[in-house]
Structure formats: C-alpha cells, structure tokens
Amino acid sequence: MKITRCYAVAVFLFTVFITYWTEPYLFRETVAPIAYTRKEISMSEKQVLLSVPYLSQLPDYPTGCESVSAVMVLRYYGYNLSPKTFIERCLLCADAPAETEAGWQSADPDEYFLGDPSSPSGWGCFPPVIENAVEAFAPGQLTSQSLSGVSPEQLCRDYIDNGIPVLFWATAGMKEPEDEKLISVSGSDKTYWWRAPMHCLLLVGYTEDDYLFQDPLVNGVTAYDKNAAAKAYRAQGEKALVILKKQA
C-alpha cells in the first residue's frame, strides 16, 4: 500500500511538471499578427513629445491619412472640426489612377487627392494638396508649407523643438514599398512614382532611438525606429508639410 501511494504521488508531481512547462505551447491561442502595432514608449527615456490630440482615420477614411493628420494639427491649434468637414469642404479630389494602353495615368497628385478618401480603393495625394486645403479652411489665419528633401533630424530641430508638428509622408508601418508605378499626369509631360503602401502620419516628437508619431492607422502615440522611419520617408521622396499660425 505504501509503495502504491508513493507511486501515485510521483505520477501526480510528474503530471504537474509536464503541464507547467508545456501548457503555454500546447494550449495557447494562436493570434494573427497585427499589421501596425504601437511600440510602448519608456517614460524614462529622454524624449520630446508634443501634446497633439489623436484622431483615427478608421473606419470612415481608410485612405484619408493626409486629411486626418492635418485635422489633428488644426485641433492642436484650437480649431474644432472633423475630418468629414475638412474633406468635404476643402479637399480637391479627382479620379484614381487608371491603367491605359499607354500605361498608368491620373490627375496631378500635387493638385488633387486621387480617388475617394472614404474608400479602401482611394489612393492619396502629395503635400501641396493639403497645403491648398488648409489655406481654403482658414484663409488669413493659417499658412502651410510643403517641404522636400529635409531630413527627419532637421524636421525635429526646426519644427518639433519649436512646438510645430509635421505631416510626414512615409509608408504604412514603415514597410518597404511593395508596389511601384510610374504614372503619367494626363494632359502633360509630367510623371511621378507611386510607391505603396504610401502613408501620411504626424511627427510629434522623438527619443534617442525613435521618432514619435500620431499615426492615424494606430491608436495612440507610436514610436518607429529612426532608421526605419527615415528609410520609408526617403522612399516617398522626403515629402513633408507644416501648418503654421500667421503672425497677427
């Protein structure tokens, strides 16, 4: 009887040991990877972070990242408006690019948002379109400036350190471009490269290792590695935009 009892205890302890070490692997739930995950920011790190209110582009404007980023800046400056108001009243839109016998063609993305920002099949626009939309929204009160070829480090020195957030053209999740198209602007000799997944997000700060963004695809302040962000930014031709209050 004593031997049997000891054997039962040994079996019990062995079962507990096996369950403890294998259960996380045998029974854990498989979770699909999330495309864009917010990186937690250690508050012990040296950082600069502007208190810009966050807005998501989802679900209403799945391709409206440029306008939603601009509206975040406008709210930061005290204007109470929605992305819907900004897009419907101020954003100039044209048809999305189309493939023809002569190749891909579209309206000029420096003049129009290509497609519908409320549609998943919308495309996007370049900084001058948002510049014009901001001027239309608050003429005489705000001005905006398209920037080209300015490094992220310089954007931080010139604008973030002075309390000015920056619209930053990069890629969703700072991914490598997955699709490149050379597109001709209809009725002109102008061409441009479209590199997807193109994405506009709002640069609001930095740490030693990361740039900090209000990313309209991700809920909350998001940290992206400086090298990855700079690479995605270069892939889009180092395009940026700042919105400024006019001097009284």
Task: Please summarize what this structure is.
This protein has 248 residues and is an alpha+beta fold. It contains six helices and 13 strands. The longest helix is centred in the first third of the chain and has 25 residues, at 2-26.
Features:
4-stranded mixed sheet, alpha+beta, 7-stranded antiparallel sheet, disordered N terminus, 248 residues, 6 helices
N-end to C-end Cα span: 96 Å
Give the overall silhouette: globular
Q: What integer value in Å does the Rg equal?
A: 24 Å
Beta-strand portion reads: 25-35%
Q: Which regions contain 5 or more consecutive residues with pLDDT less than 50?
A: 1-37
Residues in helix, %: 25-40%
Count of runs of 4 or more consecutive helical residues: 6
Largest sheet: 7 strands, antiparallel
Count all strands and give the number. Answer: 13
Topology overview:
Layout: H1 2-26, E1 47-49, H2 65-76, H3 83-90, E2 93-94, E3 98-100, E4 103-106, E5 113-114, H4 127-137, E6 142-148, H5 152-158, E7 166-171, E8 179-185, E9 191-196, E10 198-207, E11 210-214, E12 221-225, H6 226-235, E13 239-245
Parallel strand pairs: 2-5, 4-8
Antiparallel strand pairs: 1-10, 3-4, 6-13, 7-10, 7-13, 8-9, 10-11, 11-12
Helix pairs in contact: 3-4
